Amino acid sequence: MHTCYSYDGLIKPKELSYYARKKGVDGVAITDHNRIDGALKIAKQITEIIIIPGIEISSLDGHIVGLNLQEDVPKSLTIEETVEKIHALGGLAVACHPKAFLKSSLGKKTNSKFDAIEVINASAIPFKRSVRQAQEIASSLGVAQVAGSDAHYGPEIGSAYTVIYTVEHDREKIVEAIRKGFCQPLGEAIPLSLRLKREFLALKHKRVLKSSLGSDY
Ligand SMILES: [Zn+2]
After folding, report:
1. Which of 19, 54, 14 is nearest to 151 (CA)?
2. Neighbours of ion ligand 1 (CB under 5 A)
3. What are the pLDDT digits (tens) for 17-67?
4. Are 32 and 38 in contact (CB under 8 A)?
């Protein structure tokens, strides 16, 4: 999910915690676009749910998610360089929404160096087709399958989610379980009404930012 630290996110830390608990998810992975500072800050602030700090990096080949990181991964690297960098930092490399239309997706470049493939992305369009195609990629590569809400707006949190089979609710154990494939992607697409509401709020938010930041924004 994305927070207000992401250029396109609306979710403030308090909302994040409220909606996560309302939906009954035990934790969330924060993956703001090309920055990890917000995720690290929120991970310190929020203790009532598990926060996995991460990042969604714009690589030269498409978006890549790095989970369980403590520092930024540079953008505009190749797919190989990005995955290597995430692994060198001890993180988990996830090919997010590999077949989603209108998102920067890796598509056929997705490879078995990834620890997991996001087969369900709740905001992917067309939803069913992108799920089916991402599942095909994950099965052919034999890597773990996860799901993500890709939430940018509070009520979207938990629309898609990953069940993780681990006894301990510890961040490292959760990441280890995903790496071993002890996980299952579940969930649905974000309803159209919610997407429209989010778009409207995002536009309003952008206008507020624009007027407070001047014409250079
Ligand atoms: Zn993305």
Report:
1. 19
2. 63, 103
3. 999 999 999 999 999 999 999 999 999 999 999 999 999 999 999 999 999
4. yes
Structural domain contains residue 62: yes
- pLDDT digits 0-9 by tens, 156-194: 999 999 999 999 888 999 999 999 999 999 999 999 999
Q: Helices then strands (H, E): number in the chain? A: 6, 8
Determine the distance separating the centroid of ligand 1 and the alpha carbon of 6, expressed in angstroms. 12
Which one-letter DSSP state was computed for residue 46?
-
CATH of the domain at 91: 3.20.20.140
Sign of CA dihedral 92, 4, 150, 60: negative
Contact 105, 99 (CB under 8 A): yes
State the pLDDT at residue 113.
96
User: Is residue 147 in some structural domain?
Assistant: yes
The number of distinct structural domains making up the chain is 1
pTM: 0.92
Strand partners of residue 117 = 95, 145
**Which tokens sit at 106?**
């890796």
Coil vs helix vs strand at 27: strand
* Within-domain flag for 39: yes
The CA distance from 16 to 155, in Å, is 9
Distance of CA 114 from the midpoint of ligand 1 (Å):
16
Q: 167: CA distance to ligand 1 center in Å?
A: 30
Asked if residue 38 belongs to a domain, the reply is: yes
User: Which tokens hold the place of 147?
Assistant: 């799901």
